[in-house]
């Protein structure tokens, strides 16, 4: 039930003018009446704002220095935009300019932030814990991402290795089949100028136009370069496959089925641009006559 | 000292020392005593920064509330000793500079002369309703009604706290 008498006294209570029986009445009834407490709070805000009607007057500079020295703050000059006014500027409103209201609001906002920050220092220990947990979570996320990246790299390498193994198996199978044929022939290749340690053999079947190159002692091709095999008959060399040597300098390459294999006189390998070329342009590293 | 950031204290002082000092001078009519109040206000605010609650009003309103309480305490002690202010009261009142100050002055201007006089005796001199009635030679009931009406008027004109 609304206590009308209590409500009538709240504006006076906010201003602090109650005395005697009226004051005792409010003090007795207020704790049990949440609505009345909210009403009182609203009037107290009004009372607090009456202070703004007074003219700002900057205290003497000694006071600031004294206060900050007591608080252990090195003396800093106040900012030019300080809201504290000198008596002179307070007496000359024209100097304030049209943006005075905006500055006032900006000052109020900044001060709210500052005081909120100051108050928050009391919670510093709590903040440290929160920050530590946040940093920990970030670190764990970073490590998880790194692990995922590492795992992806390993998976990619595993796939590459598997593909290479498949290719090798296919080539070895082709070689096994080729070797089993009655018309299969073998040519030996020797290392030339830039690759004296290189060596190789070509196993081929002129009837089926199938051929496999087995090479060893090859250096890794420079960046952007690759080895290219050639079948040379009576005319110009015919490209038969582009390849790279493995880490041990070996390569097993199934050569392209080219008609020149029927009349092949020489097998050769040159160092070419990585994509291969239709005609040899680079140095020859392996060569051997078809017997 | 616990609770406050000294640099925050310096910033807040630069922003609101003039406002707090102006209020203290208005109440005490003595610049030296007013500066003592200003120092007390900022020391208290710094030490009790954790008690500031933005939901109850702005920072400057909080500082002014502390200043008014301390200044009125001094005024009452001075009255008990039957002392007079040590120096002349400030001169003519220049117009305020902030929108908030302008709004408060406009709100006060909407009050009748009697309402404003009663309100100012309460706010700046800290008199009780009985003391105001005696000072003005009016019935207590009249003073109560006058102050209540003035407060409700101010609340309605000013609106919510910005």
Summarize the structure in short.
The complex is a heterodimer of chains A (291) and B (162). Chain A has 291 residues and is an alpha+beta fold. Chain A has helices at 4-15, 20-29, 34-50, 61-71, 87-90, 100-120, 124-180; strands at residues 185-191, 199-205, 210-216, 225-232, 238-243, 251-255, 266-273, 284-289.
The number of domains of chain B is 2
**Gap between N and C termini of chain A:** 119 Å
List the helices and strands of chain A in order. Answer: HHHHHHHEEEEEEEE
Beta content of chain A comes to 15-25%
The percent range for helix content of chain A is 40-55%
| Side-by-side strand order of the widest sheet of chain A | 5-4-7-8-1-2-3-6
Q: What's the arrangement of secondary structure elements?
A:
The complex is a heterodimer of chains A (291) and B (162).
Chain A: H1 4-15, H2 20-29, H3 34-50, H4 61-71, H5 87-90, H6 100-120, H7 124-180, E1 185-191, E2 199-205, E3 210-216, E4 225-232, E5 238-243, E6 251-255, E7 266-273, E8 284-289
Helix pairs in contact in A: 1-2, 1-3
Chain B: H1 6-28, H2 31-47, H3 59-80, H4 99-109, H5 113-125, H6 129-136, H7 140-158
What would you note in describing this structure?
The complex is a heterodimer of chains A (291) and B (162). Chain A is of the alpha+beta class and 291 residues long. The longest helix of chain A has 57 residues, at 124-180. Chain A contains seven helices and eight strands. Among the domains of chain A are: 4-53, no CATH class; 181-289, Sandwich (Immunoglobulin-like), CATH 2.60.40. Mean pLDDT of chain A is 78; it is low at 74-100 and 120-131. In chain A, strand 1 and strand 2 form a beta hairpin. Chain A has an eight-stranded antiparallel β-sheet with strand order 5-4-7-8-1-2-3-6, covered by helices on one side. Chain B has 162 residues and is an all-alpha fold. Chain B has two domains: 1-90, Rna Polymerase Sigma Factor, Chain: A, CATH 1.10.1740; 95-162, Arc Repressor Mutant, subunit A, CATH 1.10.10. Helices cover 70% and strands 0% of the residues of chain B. Chain B contains seven helices and no strands. In chain B, helix 1 (6-28) packs across helix 3. The two termini of chain B are 31 Å apart. The model of chain B is unreliable at 88-95 (pLDDT under 50). At the A-B interface, helix 1, helix 3, helix 4 and helix 6 of A face helix 1, helix 2, helix 3, helix 4 and helix 5 of B.
């Amino acid at each position: 039930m609304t206590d009308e008498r209590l409500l009538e006294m709240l504006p006076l209570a906010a201003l602090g003018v109650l005395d005697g029986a009226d004051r005792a009445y409010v003090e007795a009834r207020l704790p049990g009446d949440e609505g009345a407490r909210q009403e009182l709070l609203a009037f107290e805000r009004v009372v607090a704002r009456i202070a703004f009607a007074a003219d700002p007057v900057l205290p003497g500079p000694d006071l600031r220095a004294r206060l900050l020295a007591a608080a252990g703050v090195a003396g800093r000059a106040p900012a030019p935009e300080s809201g504290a006014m000198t008596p002179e500027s307070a007496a000359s409103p024209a100097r304030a300019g049209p943006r005075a209201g905006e500055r006032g609001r900006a000052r109020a906002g900044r001060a709210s932030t500052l005081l909120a920050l100051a108050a928050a220092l009391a919670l510093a220990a709590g903040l440290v814990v929160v920050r530590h947990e946040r940093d920990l979570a970030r670190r764990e996320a970073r490590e998880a991402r790194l692990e995922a990246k590492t795992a992806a790299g390993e998976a990619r390498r595993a796939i590459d290795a598997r593909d290479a193994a498949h290719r090798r198996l296919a080539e070895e199978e082709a070689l096994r089949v080729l070797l089993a044929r009655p018309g299969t022939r073998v040519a030996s290749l020797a290392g030339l100028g830039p690759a004296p340690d290189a060596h190789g053999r070509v196993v081929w079947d002129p009837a089926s136009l199938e051929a496999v190159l087995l090479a060893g002692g090859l250096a890794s091709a420079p960046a952007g370069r690759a080895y290219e095999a050639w079948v040379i008959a009576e005319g110009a060399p015919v490209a038969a496959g582009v390849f790279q040597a493995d880490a041990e300098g070996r390569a097993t390459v199934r050569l392209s089925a080219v008609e020149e294999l029927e009349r092949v006189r020489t097998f050769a390998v040159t160092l070419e641009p990585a994509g291969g070329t239709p005609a040899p342009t680079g140095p020859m590293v392996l060569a051997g006559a078809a017997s | 000292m616990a609770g406050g950031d000294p640099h925050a204290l310096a910033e807040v002082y630069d922003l609101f020392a003039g406002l707090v000092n102006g209020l203290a001078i208005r109440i005490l009519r003595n610049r030296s005593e007013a500066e003592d109040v200003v120092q007390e206000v900022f020391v208290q605010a710094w030490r009790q920064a954790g008690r500031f609650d933005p939901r109850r009003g702005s920072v400057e309103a909080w500082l002014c509330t502390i200043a008014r309480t301390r200044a009125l305490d001094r005024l009452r002690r001075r009255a008990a000793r039957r002392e007079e202010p040590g120096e002349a009261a400030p001169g003519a009142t220049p117009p305020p500079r902030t929108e908030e100050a302008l709004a408060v002055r406009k709100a006060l201007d909407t009050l009748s002369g009697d309402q404003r006089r009663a309100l100012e005796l309460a706010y700046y001199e800290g008199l009780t309703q009985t003391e105001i009635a005696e000072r003005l030679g009016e019935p207590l009931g009249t003073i109560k009604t006058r102050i209540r009406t003035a407060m409700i008027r101010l609340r309605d004109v000013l609106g919510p706290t910005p």
